[in-house]
Amino acid sequence: MDSKQVTIYNITPDELTVQISDAVEAKYKLLQLKQEKNDEDLLTVEETLNLLKCSKQALWNWRKNGILPSYRLGNRVYYKKSDIFAKLVKQD
Hints:
The chain is 59% helix and 12% strand. By secondary structure, it is mainly alpha-helical. It has a domain at 41-90: Arc Repressor Mutant, subunit A (Orthogonal Bundle), CATH 1.10.10. It has a 3-stranded antiparallel sheet. Strand 2 (71-73) and strand 3 form a beta hairpin. The longest helix has 27 residues, at 13-39. The N and C termini lie far apart (67 Å). This is Helix-turn-helix domain-containing protein. It comes from Postechiella marina. It holds the Pfam family HTH_17. Residues 42-85 form the Helix-turn-helix domain.
């Protein structure tokens, strides 16, 4: 049988509230950083088509006309998620 050590702390409700709110705030900041990192993800053509719900021809036209920047790695084309969202918001 495994024995586990139990530690008892003497803490006021106010101190507990501060500790909980600090922990929640730290978790929230971590989630925000994770989301920002996800915005820099490179999407394949198929993933971009699914995200934008457009045709391959429309995506190709936007790429050729410089409306949506693309990135090539070898013979594959990728799009940055952050570029897509920026273009959707700005729409110039």
